[in-house]
Amino acid sequence: MTRFTVNNQSVEYLLDPETPLLWALRDASNLTGTKYGCGTGHCGACTVDVDGRAVRSCRMTIAEAEGTYVTTIEGLSRERAHPLQLALLADNVVQCGFCIPGIVMAAQALLRRNADPDEDAIRAAITNLCRCGIYPRLVEAIGRAARAARGEDVIPAGARPDIDPADAARAIPALVPRGR
């Protein structure tokens, strides 16, 4: 039995201690925001926060996680109100979105260590791969999130700053099937 804390909840896994943390989170805890990308720790899609450090969960076993505090993207802010989440949306950083949870968790670990990172610090900390090539906008958004966390910037909430969330959820009549 392996015990640690996930998103502020004490968890005991009845899995082989050599099970990668990624699979315990996704399969046993249904925390599917942590993505499987490469399985070798290179892409960063599986990044979670373990005791304040950005960790590639595909490379850490649950035995190695024993006694730690793990935060996944689901535990960062269920309301999606964390400055990083708001900045990435407001600055239109997200494209396909697959890499974003890992990037957010890596950036969150950076901002816990360094409340005012410069561009070089951000680029050094975010080694996650993104096939969409969001890096220039990503660096600016992380800087903006840092400023917001320090109270020096305000980031509007919502899907996009210029779209009311209620309007964003409306169905487009031409795309709604009729009679089914």
Give a verbal description of the structure.
This protein is 33% helix and 12% strand. It contains 7 helices and 5 strands; from the N terminus they run ββαβββαααααα. The protein has a 5-stranded mixed β-sheet with strand order 2-1-5-3-4, sandwiched between helices. 39% of the residues are buried. The model is unreliable at 171-176 (pLDDT under 50). It comes from Sphingomonas aurea. Residues 1-76 form the 2Fe-2S ferredoxin-type domain.
Structural class by sheet pairing and helices: alpha+beta
Total count of domains: 2
Radius of gyration: 18 Å
How much of the sequence lies in strands comes to: 5-15%
Shape: globular
Low-confidence stretches: 171-176
> How far is the first residue's CA from the last residue's CA?
49 Å
- Let me know the CATH homologous superfamily of the largest domain: Beta-grasp domain
**Arithmetic mean of pLDDT:** 90
**The CATH C-level class name of the largest domain:** Alpha Beta
Largest sheet, if any?
5 strands, mixed
Name of the CATH architecture of the largest domain: Roll
Please bin the fraction of helical residues: 25-40%
**In total, how many beta strands?**
5
Oligomer: single chain
Question: If helices are DSSP runs of H or I spanning 4 or more residues, what is the number of helices?
Answer: 7
Strand order, largest beta sheet: 2-1-5-3-4
> What name does CATH use for the topology of the largest domain?
Ubiquitin-like (UB roll)
Protein name: (2Fe-2S)-binding protein
Keywords: 2Fe-2S, Iron, Iron-sulfur, Metal-binding, Oxidoreductase
InterPro entries: 2Fe-2S-bd, 2Fe-2S-bd_dom_sf, 2Fe-2S_ferredoxin-like_sf, 2Fe-2S_ferredoxin-type, 2Fe2S_fd_BS, Beta-grasp_dom_sf, Diverse_Oxidoreductases
Pfam families: Fer2, Fer2_2
